[in-house]
Specification:
about 290 residues; alpha/beta; Rossmann fold; 2 domains; six-stranded mixed sheet; four-stranded parallel sheet; 10 helices; 10 strands
Length: about 290
């Protein structure tokens, strides 16, 4: 692991039971894996995905990180903060046109020292093509490339360590999905008879099935069959919100004292509550929901 000044991660992250949740009276136990508490600037699976990538970047002599994300990307935020802590320059390639003033996520990344650049959506879909990458490195200089959302083998292997930290017996591990990297790693780290469910936050998230399989092959040389996607809770698409979702976030904060990220974790928790209420999980099931 690379060294960074004033940067401390304490593992494992807390595991807490959610009392009075939708499983009460239905025989379903719900636990929260609070990876969001690992670090205020590089929380949870963001750190798990970046850790080995930072070490590789340093070992290969890179002084600059280049990565990709949408306008509300938590990955861009975390990469910017990690770069500042560990002495890397950072370039964030943002999907779509520039809009001023910057939203809170991009403004935060910029404050951390990240240089932001933008690709129109057509070009962004080709972001891994050699000519697009050559143009970016020609403009900004040599850089260690981290895919969107941290989706590569080192990142997936970092996420695979998480299930081993859970000391309670459990049956199902749930996470929000943006690129599929977290789900790919979590599923690979599960034990026998355990399964993972990913809740895509993008409209039409079924495409992530192929991506999860690809990432598992890249990271481990094989796929696992112990995971699935629940695509019914994207709320219209990435970073979209509705009155129902906003009300759920407020109620969750009031009842449980936990603030949910509206782009990712709120959609996963909303969907998970709905599935528990409608009897998707058998009596006696223990579910762990990952907040990251």
């Amino acid at each position: 692991m690379p060294s960074g000044s004033e940067f401390a991660i304490e593992l494992p992250s807390p595991l807490v039971e959610l009392p009075g949740g939708p499983g009460a009276g239905r025989g379903v136990r719900l636990l929260l894996k609070r990876d969001d508490l690992l670090h205020p600037e590089v929380p949870g699976t963001k750190w798990r995905k970046l850790r080995d990538n930072l070490a590789l970047a340093r070992a290969q002599g890179h002084r600059r990180l280049l990565t990709f994300g949408g306008a509300y990307s938590s990955h861009l935020r975390a990469t910017a903060a990690a770069g500042r802590h560990f002495g890397f320059g950072t370039i964030g390639v943002v999907r779509g046109e520039e809009h001023r003033p910057l939203n809170e996520s991009l403004a935060y990344a910029e404050r951390q020292g990240m240089r932001l650049t933008y690709l129109d959506r057509t070009t962004y879909r080709r972001k891994t093509d050699p000519d697009v990458l050559a143009a970016l490195t020609g403009r900004f200089g040599p850089a260690y490339l981290i895919p969107e959302g941290g989706g590569n083998g080192p990142a997936v292997r970092g996420c695979a360590e998480l299930p081993g930290e859970i000391t309670e017996d459990f049956d199902v591990l749930c996470c929000a999905c943006g690129t599929g990297a977290t789900l790919a790693g979590l599923a690979a780290g599960l034990g026998p008879r355990q399964r993972a469910i990913g809740f895509p936050v993008l409209k039409g998230g079924r495409f992530l099935e192929a991506e999860v399989r690809r990432l598992q092959r890249e990271a481990f040389g094989a796929e696992t069959g112990n995971w699935s996607l629940d695509c019914d809770f994207a709320f219209g698409g990435y970073a979209r919100r509705t009155a129902a979702l906003d009300a759920f976030i407020a109620d969750f904060q009031h009842r449980h004292g936990v603030g949910l990220d509206r782009v990712y974790e709120a959609k996963m928790m909303y969907g998970l509550f709905q599935r528990i209420r409608t009897g998707t999980f058998a009596r006696g099931t223990t579910v762990v929901a990952l907040l990251c």
